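Inverse folding, one chain.
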């Protein structure tokens, strides 16, 4: 017998598979990649949530205009301390809107108008900031939503078209 053949016959066979150390190294690498990916993706998730919230408010404003036309009564929108609310003019006074889609909301951040609104036909302090006429008259406004990390602008033009876009604050 040749000496090399004996060595091969009696050599220990290494078991197939991965060692614990190799598996742990792969897990650490995957965890690091996952952490980096989540740090990259989370801001875009927050940005999407902010855009969805701004679009929801724009949709509610559109719905209030539609309800005013449909019901033949003025609807209103007011900024509140920590959010906003919708109103309907009934029994010679502004009452909270009863439609589910027009319920008062609390928000993250701050809502403000880009310029003070002229209160049309304002005889009392209790009038809403924006009034949606049942005659189809359009209120032109720009509403700014200042949130941490993203600012949004909701604008209604003379044609009644509502737009939502990002807004950069000039320092």
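Residues assigned per position:
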């Amino acid at each position: 017998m040749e000496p090399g053949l004996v060595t091969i016959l009696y050599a220990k066979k290494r078991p197939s598979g991965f060692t614990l150390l190799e598996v742990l190294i792969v897990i650490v690498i995957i965890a690091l990649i996952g952490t980096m990916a989540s740090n990259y993706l989370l801001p875009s998730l927050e940005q999407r949530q902010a855009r969805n919230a701004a679009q929801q408010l724009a949709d509610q404003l559109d719905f209030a205009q539609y309800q005013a036309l449909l019901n033949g009564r003025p609807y209103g929108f007011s900024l509140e301390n920590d959010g906003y609310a919708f109103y309907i003019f009934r029994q010679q006074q502004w009452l909270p809107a009863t439609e589910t889609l027009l319920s008062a909301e609390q928000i993250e951040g701050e809502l403000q108008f880009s310029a003070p609104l002229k209160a049309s036909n304002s005889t009392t302090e209790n009038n809403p900031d924006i009034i949606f006429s049942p005659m189809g008259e359009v209120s032109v406004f720009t509403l700014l939503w200042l949130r941490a990390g993203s600012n949004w602008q909701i604008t209604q033009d003379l044609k009644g078209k509502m737009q939502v876009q990002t807004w950069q604050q000039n320092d």
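Residues 120-124 have pLDDT under 50 and may be disordered. The CA atoms of residues 19 and 144 lie 58 Å apart.
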